[in-house]
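Structure (tokenized):
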């Protein structure tokens, strides 16, 4: 699905070779500052390497329209993005970005229940707590029906019980629909429980310029 060859980004990241297969859930694991978020952003062109190539479905990412790419390869960033407006507005805006039709309120209500988010669709989104906003952003991304989900610490603001519920829901959806995800997490437990493959940053990052 993705292939990275001899990638260099500033003095932050040097990756000789990385292959990511479709239909799997990957976790990126490594110490703080090891470049996990930076690498994640390369997969949908939010950052562009200084050297090297990244291919997606055998095409160089550099040649793909970034807007089109981001409809297929969706990012849920470390800090949840909350738009002005209601909970409903915040869920539907992802569909608008993906150029997909709106869905019925009942679909959104079911999604809020799945996310353990006991809020009304008409509630103002900026009044939600940090953990609630994280789940709202997760819901927006889940609705988008992407091919690939890039998640950066998606449950960092959640208690353990809610984290388990959200991760169970998310990974079931990925597996049922044959999609894939690359997820940054600090939690070894989350990585081991939910991923098919753990990518250890220490294993893939080489010394600058050393591609031997
Ligand atoms: N745009 C940028 N310009 C310069 N340096 C940056 C930029 N983005 C990140 N860095 C630096 O690159 C390094 C890797 O950052 P990154 O956020 O990718 O690490 P991380 O492994 O995700 O860390 P954490 O687990 O703490 O979130 C850090 O030293 C950071 O300060």
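Design, position by position:
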């Amino acid at each position: 699905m993705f292939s990275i060859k001899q990638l260099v980004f500033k003095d932050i990241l040097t990756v000789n070779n990385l292959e990511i297969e479709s239909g799997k859930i990957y976790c990126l694991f490594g110490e703080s500052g090891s470049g996990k978020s930076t690498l994640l952003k390369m997969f949908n062109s939010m950052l562009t390497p200084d050297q090297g190539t990244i291919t997606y479905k055998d095409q160089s990412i550099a040649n793909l329209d970034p807007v089109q790419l981001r409809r297929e390869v969706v990012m849920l960033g470390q800090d949840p993005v909350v738009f002005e407006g209601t909970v409903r507005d915040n869920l539907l805006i992802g569909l608008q970005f993906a150029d997909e039709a709106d869905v019925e309120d009942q679909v959104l209500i079911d999604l809020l229940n799945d996310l353990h988010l006991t809020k009304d669709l008409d509630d103002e989104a900026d009044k939600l707590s940090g953990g609630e906003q994280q789940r709202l952003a997760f819901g927006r991304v889940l609705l988008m029906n992407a091919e690939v989900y890039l998640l950066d610490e998606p449950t960092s603001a959640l208690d353990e019980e809610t984290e388990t519920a959200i991760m169970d829901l998310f990974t079931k959806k990925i597996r049922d629909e044959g999609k894939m995800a690359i997820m940054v997490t600090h939690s070894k437990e989350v990585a081991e429980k939910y991923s098919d493959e753990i990518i250890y940053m220490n294993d893939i990052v080489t010394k600058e310029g050393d591609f031997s």
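Reviewer-requested clarification: Helices lie at 36-42, 66-72, 87-97, 105-114, 130-143, 160-176, 188-194, 201-204. Strands lie at 2-9, 13-20, 25-29, 51-56, 59-60, 73-76, 148-152, 180-184, 197-200.
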